[in-house]
Amino acid sequence: MRSSTPTGYWGPPTSTIDWCELNYEHSFYIAEFWNTISNSLFVLLGLYGLYRSIKMGFEPRFHLQFIGVMQCDETPMVWSILAWIYIVYNNEIEQIPIKNANNYVIAFLTTIGAIFTVVHAIYRFTTVFQVFFGVLARAVARSYVTSSLIGFAFWLMDYHYCHIVRELPINPQGHAWWHMFMGISTYHGPIFMQYVRMEQLKKKVRIHDTCIGIQTIVVENIGPDSPKKPKH
């Protein structure tokens, strides 16, 4: 797709999507410099979220470490969103007046994930994956939809309008902005799920703004000596 660009330490791109940023433009060892740097927000917010989760005593949920050749970055995103949907709507699922409704929902979401995985592995969809991921993200919670949609727009623009972007005096680095907005979105997603889970466990929690729009959850311990707040 970009045969005119230099080949660096990691060789030519092999992913299904090669973004609009020039490969190895800034470093022989980093194929997409700004895309790589912008990913640091995922790590920083992830570590902060882990610290807060441990401090607040939240339940350990899921952990997965994958080592090997992957088609993934795409497929794990879809599976994670399906898992989020199940966690967020767990209470509502239990109230469905159908025997074993929980098992049916799990089977349904698993089937969606499996079908997408197989189809994507065979045909290597790009736009279909992007649209599918964007639609699923909107279904999880309104608290972080805005960041998801803005990032989603940057993602599509960077891929489909690269021929226009490359003619601009400065490359706006749409995929790097996607990382920034999705870093915020994927941080706020688990925060929302933690809030829902604490509500399910009948624990009193509140959302606390820390800085620059980053939010966290505070569990308010209510003991016999704790003052009771008036009900509104």
TrEMBL record:
The chain crosses the membrane at residues 33-51, 63-89, 101-123, 135-156, 176-196. The keyword Glycoprotein does not apply. Its cofactor is Zn(2+). It is a multi-pass membrane protein. It comes from the Eukaryota. InterPro entries: ACER, ACER_plant. GO terms for biological process: autophagy; ceramide metabolic process; defense response to other organism; response to salt stress. Pfam families: Ceramidase. GO terms for cellular component: membrane. Keywords: Calcium, Hydrolase, Membrane, Metal-binding, Transmembrane, Transmembrane helix, Zinc. Ca(2+) binds at residues 18-19, 21, 23, 32. GO terms for molecular function: hydrolase activity, acting on carbon-nitrogen (but not peptide) bonds, in linear amides; metal ion binding. It is found in: Membrane. Zn(2+) binds at residues 175, 179. Belongs to the alkaline ceramidase family. This is Alkaline phytoceramidase (APHC), putative. It comes from Phytophthora infestans (strain T30-4) (Potato late blight agent). The lineage of its organism: Eukaryota, Sar, Stramenopiles, Oomycota, Peronosporomycetes.
